[in-house]
């Protein structure tokens, strides 16, 4: 395996934060608390409001920021280091959509059930709170905010999760509220 493998968004994956890894070896559990049930056997009932989980980390390399921006978000603050020096952030910053892609990687690796996830009706209140710069190491903090059984389809429920993406200094760089439809545990 390469020393610094890349995820599909092009960002480098760090494996140095914790000995606990997913099957893929991509990102890790960073907090002492994790679900009692592995992601491969997790159902609606496992998402308890108030529970907080931390996962990560992914390092945002300069070349990855440039590559993503060249393909998906061709603004000079993201893909032109010289022009970015004169921009509002006084240097190169990652596209917010790149940060969202990296967030999704950590969210899917660890949080979203592999057996019970049906779909997501969407996200609310997406905010890019602070710029992400080359070398920043990002982690994900997921807080189960609400979990309610569907009235029309009692075999499933809706889980609302508060998501915060933190840099290596613990500063929030992204926030959003995600909703996921999940099957209830079979009898």
How would you explain this protein's 3D organization?
The chain is α+β, with helices and mostly antiparallel strands and 187 residues long. Helix content is 19%, strand content 32%. It contains four helices and seven strands. Strands 1, 2, 3, 4, 5, 6 and 7 form a seven-stranded antiparallel β-sheet that branches.
Which terms summarize this structure?
single chain, 187 residues, alpha+beta, 4 helices, disordered N terminus
**SS strand fraction:** 25-35%
Please give the count of helices: 4
Please estimate the helix content: 10-25%
**Rg, nearest Å:** 17 Å
Low-confidence stretches: 1-25
Which overall shape is indicated by the principal axes computed on the Cα atoms? elongated
Q: Short description, anyone?
A:
With 187 residues, the chain is α+β, with helices and mostly antiparallel strands.
Question: What's the topology here?
Answer:
Blueprint: E1 12-13, E2 28-29, E3 52-59, H1 62-72, H2 76-79, H3 81-85, H4 96-110, E4 117-128, E5 137-149, E6 156-166, E7 172-183
Antiparallel strand pairs: 1-3, 2-3, 3-5, 4-7, 5-6, 6-7
């Amino acid at each position: 395996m390469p020393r610094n493998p890349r995820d599909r968004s092009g960002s480098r994956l760090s494996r140095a934060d914790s000995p606990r890894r997913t099957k893929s070896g991509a990102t890790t559990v960073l907090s002492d608390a994790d679900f009692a049930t592995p992601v491969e056997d997790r159902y609606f009932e496992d998402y308890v409001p108030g529970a907080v989980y931390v996962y990560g980390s992914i390092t945002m390399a300069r070349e990855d920021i440039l590559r993503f921006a060249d393909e998906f978000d061709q603004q000079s603050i993201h893909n032109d280091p010289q022009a970015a020096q004169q921009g509002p952030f006084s240097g190169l910053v990652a596209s917010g959509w790149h940060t969202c892609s990296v967030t999704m990687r950590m969210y899917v690796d660890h949080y979203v059930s592999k057996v019970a996830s049906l779909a997501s009706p969407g996200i609310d209140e997406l905010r890019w709170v602070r710029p992400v710069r080359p070398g920043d190491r990002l982690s994900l903090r997921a807080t189960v905010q609400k979990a309610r059984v569907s009235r029309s389809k009692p075999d499933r429920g809706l889980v609302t999760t508060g998501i915060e993406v933190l840099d290596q200094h613990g500063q929030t760089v992204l926030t959003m509220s995600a909703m996921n439809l999940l099957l209830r545990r079979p009898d």
